[in-house]
Amino acid sequence: MKFKWQNYNAAYLFLSPAMTAIFIFFFLPVLAALVMSFTDFDIYSLGDISRARFVGFSNYIDLFKNPLFWKALGNTGYFVLVGVPLSILISMLAAMALNSKMLRFKPFFRLTFFLPVVTTLVAVAVIWRYIYQARFGLLNYLLSFVGINPVDWLGNPRWAMLALIIMAVWKGFGYNMIIFVAGLQNIPETLYEAARLDGANGWQEFRNVTLPMLAQTTGFITITTLIGYCQFFAEPYVMTDGGPLNSTLSIVLMMYKEGFKFWRMGYSAAIAFILFGIILIITLIQLRIQKHHEI
Amino acid sequence: MKFKKSYQKYGLYLLMFLAAVLTLAPFVWMLSASIMPEGGANQFPPRLFPKTPTWEHYQRLFRQMNIVRYFLNSVIVAVSVTFISLLFNSMAGYAFAKYRFPGKNKLFKLLLSAMVIPAQVTMLPLFLMLNRMGLVNTYWGIIIPGMTSIYGIFLIRQYIMSIPDSLIEAARIDGATDFYIYLRLILPLAKPILVTLALFTFMGSWNDFLWPLIVMTGDSMYTLPVALANLMGEHAQDTELMMAGAVITILPVLIVFLAMQKYYIRGIMLGSVKE
Questions:
Q1: Interface of A with B in 78-97 (CB under 8 A)
Q2: Which of A2, B76, B224, B237 could form an SS bridge with B249, CB 3.0 to 4.6 Å?
């Protein structure tokens, strides 16, 4: 028996709270931000909105002329392009170890690697700020055993971003690890047996069975991790405030400072939309690749 | 051959043990530094364990730093966001899963494509709107944007779609109203997804930073992460105090996670198999 609801009213009633909230507090602000990004909305417009004027694309043009914005873009690119592959690699290795038949105490290891994921990022950034401390920090102390001289991790423009990346990878790899473990468990054992019969060694098994079978999982993980890393904010906010010499200024941190410190909200909105554009491009590439896979 | 196997095995254990130590070290150091006497964490060589443990930093946080207030702010906000969003999302998810109505597909597609938009885009106008409404620096300032999540609606819809229509039909023939069916049939059946989402929402809200930082403009309304970041500005030298603050911030989410680990892991899997 085909079942049909005739009662639209009930459906609209069920939808109305969520849809009202989404339209008023999500879609409307998105549109408003777009409009704002074409105005010179600043601290004076906060009190009297009529003070804001349309300025066309000049916020965007100013941004692209602003070396600081390029710096923030470059820093974010560095963070993403080094952090994402590193994070995925470590997640995959950890997942393979967790999936190994040789290993016992798996729940312990899984829990351990997962703990940083659920802890508060701000608290973690605070802890690591002291770990990176040049004179008394734990890291430099440990490195001294292998003969490495103290590094001023967060005070040196050369190392600060790398320090943030290491922390972000430590914080996040457990999440993708869980997804990889599930992906590994979905690979039929018979494929490995067949590979072994053909005389494949460990590396060849990995290269010709594990990696291709994980392709879809890896694709998904890459996109979500990329998008997450593009939005990094709390790490530099807590640990470096974007310094030294703006070497850890991220796009979102710049957006925050322009918008909520200097109250140049039109300018800040333009930064937000450029971030949106970047994320949109990443997502579109993903959809494109997915389509190719389906065909 | 056998020798090679055990060699590999010990290698694996060694690596995993090392990785576990590296992963846990920051937490261990945080705990131990939080009970060191003042200046104890700024020594060379660093001590892993305090010589004379003390609670003074926790006492200071409780007595002078208003930490109870921040803790309550975090609890109030996270609990409200979790309950309200679960209610709104489950209602909408049910409508999308089991009703036919004009505009359904268009609306759903609009919501799905909106998931690409990063939340940061909305923050400037949202702040201005809430400011106009007098809701900046109130709990509502955080609760209102957290009331719904498109992703939550999507997950609940997927789950409710798997509930057989015949159950709803039977209830309807028995004379149950739409709302009664939602409350007494759908919600209990959707409990697994609701628990998982509740956990994710609670922890996400507890750990959230950027928006609470923007909208909570007055000291007494700070959530724990905002308070901790702010404390960092004033007391960066008090390593031990900061670590005690970090412990208090982390502990609640850690306990919630440990108690409900399996729901959390299941949530990750739900998210990763979407589409």
A1: 94, 97
A2: B224
Q: Nearest CB to A122: which of B15, B91, B229?
A: B229
Q: What's the pLDDT tens digit per position in A228-255?
A: 999 999 999 999 999 899 999 999 999 9
Residues of B whose CB is below 8 A from A237: 209, 213, 229
Q: What is the pTM of this model?
A: 0.92
Residues of B in contact with A37 (CB under 8 A): none
* CATH fold group of domain A65-294: MetI-like fold (1.10.3720)
Instruction: Tell me what ipTM this predicted complex has.
Output: 0.91
Q: DSSP per residue over A63-109, as a string?
A: HHH-HHHHHHHHHHHHHHHHHHHHHHHHHHHHHHHHH-TT---HHHH
Give the C-alpha separation, B177 to A200, whole Å: 63
* Domain extents in chain A: 65-294
The CATH class of B64-272 is mainly alpha
Helix H or strand E encompassing B33: helix B2-34
Give pLDDT tens digits for A12-54.
Answer: 999 999 999 999 999 999 999 999 999 998 888 887 788 888 9
